[in-house]
Write a structure and sequence with these properties.
Strand order of the largest sheet of chain A: 1-3-2
Radius of gyration of chain A: 20 Å
Oligomer: homodimer
CATH architecture of the largest domain in chain A: Orthogonal Bundle
CATH superfamily of the largest domain in chain A: Winged helix-like DNA-binding domain superfamily/Winged helix DNA-binding domain
Number of helices of chain A: 7
Largest interface: A-B, 66 and 66 residues
Structural class of chain A: mainly alpha
Number of strands of chain A: 3
Order of helices and strands of chain A: HHEHHEEHHH
Chain lengths: 169, 169
DNA sequence: GAAATTGGGCAGCCATGTTGACGTATCTTG
DNA sequence: CAAGATACGTCAACATGGCTGCCCAATTTC
């Protein structure tokens, strides 16, 4: 299951890249990298009076139009009360609309309005610029490694849900 | 500067790995991967009545013992009022202590107490387990790529500060 | 040595998460 | 068809972790 370990350090049980400095480096790069990626969209959000919670919601609805409230709750990992407030604000601003499910009329299916799509696209553009610059600078092979490590951080159960986003995108 | 691009798609200006699905994949893996990495320490923090903001503070003080409040402010990218509250709580709980700077007596130099070091070590252990499992599963080459991409997300100016953490670690 | 700069701190507000309890419409099942 | 389960919404109260505004003390500068 685990990768083969080079054994250049006979006195150590772990290869060099599993030692504390390399772990700390990963933690720090994740923290700073992710922070800077998101920092770019705050301005665009603030201009609409929205926050990051609203962005995450817009993002996933854009990704899976017609998803149910319960699907979104599982993806975001928050309570329905928290999501309810965010969804309410987005609906009031005509960025999100709900339609009653046809097979099960208790369900509310979530969609972006044209305005919502436009805002999501604008915010995505900021993320795209930063991440694609990082991808291009690092090269294709590095991007594959980047994905590999991050996938390993996600529990198997949830990895399915994340992979499902790709298929529908 | 940029890596060589394979040109399997002559009709596209960008290589495949710079297209929207690959960008969205990176965004999603970062979001879910980082979320799960951090989720593991919440329990340990809650048992002490602390939150993630406290952890970040403990982490960086552990990383650079004796750093100034202003150094920490730059690293965290928050306001000194926000940090002040966190530092106050950590000091009250005897996890952090400050010493007056010798060259400039306005400065407060930050250190972890033995209890603070023990807590930071415990929290780090949880992060280490998860990240080293992901590293091992992905392999050394993937880890290098992971670092490469994340570095590209950090503005050059700040990259220096992040790199400095490694030297002192 | 007065003024400006710098390091730090306190008070109070806002965004966004939490729990708990409850209401209502709809679907499912005995 | 009655009973229970499910999907969603909502009210109230509260915690965390950001923020701005204002203030004090120490140092540097002119």
């Amino acid at each position: 299951m685990a990768a083969q370990f080079p054994s250049e350090t006979p006195r150590a049980a772990s290869p060099l890249f599993l030692r504390e400095p390399e772990i700390r480096r990963g933690i720090e790069l994740l923290y700073f990298g992710y922070s800077h990626l998101l920092r770019g969209i705050d301005e665009g959000l603030a201009s609409q009076g929205l926050g990051r919670a609203h962005h995450r919601t817009l993002y996933f609805i854009a990704r899976q139009p017609g998803l149910k409230v319960s699907d979104l709750l599982r993806l975001l990992g928050i309570t329905k009360q928290s999501l309810g407030r965010v969804l309410g604000e987005l609906t009031t601003r005509d960025l999100v609309e709900t339609r009653t499910g046809e097979v099960d009329r208790r369900q509310r299916l979530l969609f972006l309005t044209p305005e919502g799509k436009a805002l999501e696209a604008e915010l995505f553009e900021s993320l795209r610029e930063k991440l694609s610059a990082a991808y291009a600078q690092a090269g294709q092979g590095s991007v594959a490694g980047f994905w590999q490590v991050l996938e390993g951080l996600i529990p198997a159960e949830e990895r399915k849900r994340v992979a499902a986003l790709q298929r529908e995108g």
